[in-house]
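Reading a protein record of the kind used here takes little practice once its layout is understood. Each number in the token line that follows is a code from a learned vocabulary of backbone shapes. One such record is shown here in full, so that the layout can be seen directly:
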Amino acid sequence: MSFDWSSLPAAQGAGPEAVPEMINHALTVLADLLEEGDLACEFSLVSGSLIDGDVAESVNALLPSLCRVQGLQWVQSWRTPVGDALPGLFLPTRQADAWGQGAPARALVDSLTYWVMALMGRLWPDDAECWSLTVETDDWYAAAYVDVVINHQEQVWLLHLGVTD
């Protein structure tokens, strides 16, 4: 879309403390829209302080208790894995006509994705340190997921985009 979502007053006027809540709210709506039968999306953004300069340790503190970092793979920009995953990786498989390019439901989830990306751009510059995360777990975790870790200004962010069955 050619519209600049970051130009909206809601995005421009939101203080840094409000933006994460706005992102989580938009992710909740997006997850609700993409839910299908036995599959549910679980999208979230959490953050914590960088612990002793160690990104992996900081991410472990943000993960559920029986999960831990298995691997962190550096990516050039957080926009790449997020843009590749949303909404395409999570589009429902039933009712293909509702989710095809140009269909109203697809236009709505695409617009929400652009809004989420504009809000994320308020938190992190494109060149913020970023990794794709692989999780090791002794318990249940999302069946399929894209986890992105961003380290910016001594704050570590974990964006979880997952689907459960």
Remarks:
- The beta strands are 40-49, 67-74, 129-137, 144-152, 155-164.
- The CA atoms of residues 5 and 114 lie 7 Å apart.
- The longest strand covers residues 40-49.
- The mean pLDDT is 93.
